[in-house]
Design goal:
single chain; alpha+beta; 3-stranded antiparallel sheet; 2 helices; 15% helix; globular
């Protein structure tokens, strides 16, 4: 069982000031944390903030930033957090697909427009291996 969390830039007004953004996963079994700096693009989907479909475009017209993640399809990995024209993005949904033994990380999915979202698949076997390496390093 894993738990995912992220840290944004924080606030210069807060105690300690701004922070470095990051995406992290915690293994409840080993009680270890890992920072996830990149995810595999294998099997993913990569959307953009505009659509040729008029109905989808109406919904997207109000977004305050622009993104086009389609170029990630030609890369083996995507760096996290994802970057838009004026922001950083972390998953807004993380689904536990027990049948496929993987997690599905969904970015820009809150609008319900499949062509706008980016989806990455994280195999649990890869997480287990990463935590085994981290555990052996300690």
């Amino acid at each position: 069982m894993y738990e995912f969390v992220f840290r944004h830039y924080g606030s210069s007004q807060a105690v300690g000031g701004n922070t470095v953004p990051g995406f992290f996963v915690h293994s409840k079994k080993t009680d270890l944390w890992l920072e996830v700096v990149a995810v595999s693009t294998r099997g993913g989907r990569f959307g953009r903030s505009w659509s040729d479909d008029p109905e989808e475009q109406k919904k997207l017209k109000g977004v305050s930033v622009v993104w086009d993640f389609r170029d990630l399809a030609s890369r083996p990995f995507a760096s996290l957090p994802l970057k838009t024209s004026g922001s950083i993005a972390f998953p807004d949904q993380i689904e536990d697909d027990r049948e496929r033994d993987q997690y599905r990380l969904r970015f820009m999915s809150n609008g319900g427009i499949a062509s706008a979202e980016a989806v990455f698949l994280v195999d649990k076997v890869d997480l287990k291996a990463a935590f085994a390496v981290e555990g052996n390093a300690k």
